[in-house]
Design goal:
This protein is mainly α and 347 residues long. It is 83% helix and 1% strand. It has helices at residues 8-18, 22-49, 53-63, 66-77, 81-111, 118-148, 150-177, 183-192, 196-228, 232-257, 261-290, 300-317, 324-343; strands at 114-115, 321-322. Strands 1-2 form a two-stranded antiparallel sheet. Helix 5 runs parallel beside helix 10, helix 10 (232-257) runs antiparallel to helix 13 (324-343) and helix 12 (300-317) packs antiparallel against helix 13 (324-343).
Length: 347
């Protein structure tokens, strides 16, 4: 049903060429990206069917958040570094609180107490805390380092980014080495498998359209924010992550409703780890190529929100079972954080 939103793609493209209102252009591009993100995800899953487990994990790790990565790259290109970093924060928060919260709430209401692999959930929870530390250290140390060595802040971010990508790669190897990927993932993939050629064609076409629309979206973002009196914080933390991840969010919730809580947890926690330990550090290196160097220095409010989200998500995951009340608790935290960033002015 989301594919009907593709009608907004020509609206956004036409609006860009004809100089329509930035608000119309932004929201048209945003709505058009939603189904394209879903197509990207489906093509990735179909392609993963025809590969071995290691390559499959790599494909899902690098392409699972492709739509949002593309949007963020264009934000960096335009010099909207605060928007880019806010979208990283928002993706992590959205997966840990909104997606996991909805999954646990709706799955719990339908099936009662749901159980999942405690060992893998515990590993993911530990990785979340590690990701928070990795993002927090450059932010907390940057002010003191900058006073004596301005370049040191950038080198700290580059070094942290390199080891974050390394530990993410090791976590993927560990997951497949120990067979931690839920069996239901293979069942879902096998059920939707199509030819490699079609999967690659879908991937290329969808990625190309997402890139085009992302450039339009980012170009209209700043005037749209001024027109609607929205901050970069709110747009980056709430709106952009929803645009790029709606399809993936629905898969996680649907899995929980089918009592496949292990798959749902894998999607929500795994996607958060991809963003924190792969996408964020990758952007640090990509930003150098684009001429707008981005560091891993996040705002104190973003760090507080990330810390709270990681803590409550880890507590929910650690015992290997969930219930609807825990889902409601996660959603309450997300709503409070959303309200806080809505009223928080920039600067």
């Amino acid at each position: 049903y989301f594919n009907i939103l593709l009608i907004f793609a020509p609206v956004a493209i036409l609006g860009e060429f004809l100089g329509w209102s930035p608000t119309i252009v932004f929201w048209s591009a945003a709505l058009a990206v939603i189904p394209l993100a879903g197509i990207l995800g489906e093509a990735t899953e179909e392609l993963a069917v025809h590969t071995g487990p290691q390559l499959s994990g790599f494909l899902n790790g690098t392409l699972g958040n492709a739509a949002e990565l593309i949007i963020t790259i264009f934000a960096v290109k335009e010099g909207l570094l605060d928007l880019a970093k806010a979208s990283i924060t928002g993706s992590i928060l959205g997966n840990l609180l909104l997606v996991l919260g909805l999954s646990v709430l709706l799955g719990g209401l339908r099936h009662g107490v749901q159980r999942f692999d405690r060992t893998q959930a515990s590993v993911n929870a530990t990785m979340l805390i590690l990701a928070l530390i990795a993002l927090g250290i450059p932010s907390l140390f940057s002010h003191s380092i900058d006073e004596v060595n301005h370049a040191g802040v950038e080198f700290l971010s580059l070094g942290a980014a390199a080891v974050m990508i390394l530990i993410y790669g090791l976590s993927v190897v560990f997951a497949f080495q120990w067979g931690a990927e839920p069996k239901v993932v293979h069942e879902v993939r096998a059920a939707t498998a199509q030819s490699v050629g079609k999967a690659v064609a879908l991937l290329v076409i969808a990625a190309g359209l997402v890139a085009w629309l992302s450039e339009i979206l980012v170009g209209a973002a700043e005037p749209m924010m001024h027109a609607m009196n929205l901050s970069e914080f709110f747009v980056g933390i709430i709106i952009v992550p929803l645009i790029g991840n709606v399809a993936e969010h629905l898969v996680a919730v649907t899995a929980a409703l089918k009592n496949h809580m292990e798959l749902s947890m894998s999607i929500s926690l795994g996607s958060s780890l991809q963003i924190a330990l792969f996408v964020a550090p990758a952007l640090v290196f990509i930003s150098l190529l684009l001429g707008n160097p981005m560091t891993l220095v996040f705002d104190q409010f973003e760090l507080i929100a990330l810390g709270g989200a990681a803590l409550i998500a880890a507590l929910v995951a650690q015992d290997g079972e969930s219930n609807w009340l825990e889902g409601a608790q996660l959603l309450v935290v997300y709503v409070i954080i959303g309200l806080a960033f809505f009223y928080l002015p920039m600067g």
